Amino acid sequence: MPFITTADGTEIYYTEQGSGQPVLLSHGWPLSSDAWQVELKLLADAGYRAIAHDRRGHGRSSKTYTGNDMDTYARDLAELVEALDLHDLVLIGHSTGGGEVVRYAAQHGAGRVAKVITAGAVPPIMVKSDANPEGTPIEAFDGIRDGVLKDRSQFYQDLSVPFFGANREGANVSQGARDDFWRQGMLVNLAAAYDCVKAFSETDFTEDLKALDVPILLAHGDDDQIVPIAAASLKSAELVKHGTLKVYAGAPHGIYGDYQAELDKDILAFIAQ
Asked: What's the rounded Cα separation, in Å, for the pair 263 and 159?
């Protein structure tokens, strides 16, 4: 399996398919590059070099106790991009991965990044505060940490319901999709899963968004129960210079079903522009 080893000795797994302009995909919490299997094939079929990695602590990468924070995630991504010598790069990030690619592009990607795409992404900041009244209360993130500590297996099974919107009337989410969410979640070591909650909920990406000087597509479902759109993409769209906001009516957080089909079409169209 292909790995790079970062400066601090962490092994980062990655997979790639196809050839052409590189497109790098960053997954959400608590998933892995496996979450992008459909997109890897679609992008490769469309003539791109599609690459996806497992964030440190996740999937097949090293089960890290340290470095489970957004700055380190972005540095890991920078080391992967440099190791593969990627240029004219398109970045795609879902949820936590959306934060990772925004921070990477703003702080490390000058001269390499051509476009950015986020879906259900955590920027500008998730946690509620006086400055961010639309955010999610810290108690909700404390609950995630408690769930991960007490019984992560059951917690991931339960979380798959709102993740895919399976609790909505008329939802048609397969058991297989929910099982795969659980499978990927169980690959994260506990310390990394726990620490990443702070990374995705409390990191402020405001200045990163303002610093971006490349086109960015901000995709978000308006029924996202995990990263509510009001405190996320609606605000990010006001901070970026070259942003395109696309709201998907009734779409959940998880990239699945009709939402996935529509998003994938929009991704291909945006890259081709």
From this structure: 22
Structural domain that includes position 215: 3-272
Known catalytic residue at 95: yes
Structure tokens at 180: 């795969």
Catalytic residue of the set 34, 53, 224, 236: 224
Rounded Cα distance between 243 and 102, Å, is: 12
Cα distance between residue 99 and residue 197, in whole Å: 13
Give me the chain's average pLDDT, please. Answer: 98
Active-site residue among 53, 58, 94, 253? 253
State the CATH number of the domain containing residue 208. 3.40.50.1820
Catalytic residue, chosen from 26, 33, 61, 95, is 95
Number of domains in the chain: 1
Is pTM beyond 0.90? Reply is: yes
Encode pLDDT of 224-243 as tens digits: 999 999 999 999 999 999 99
Residue 222 contacts by C-beta under 8 Å, 6 or more apart in sequence? 229, 247, 248, 249, 250, 251
- Residue 251 near residue 227, CB atoms below 8 Å: no
**Residue whose entry in the numeric block shows the structure tokens 């004219």:** 88
**Sole residue written with tokens 């470095």:** 67
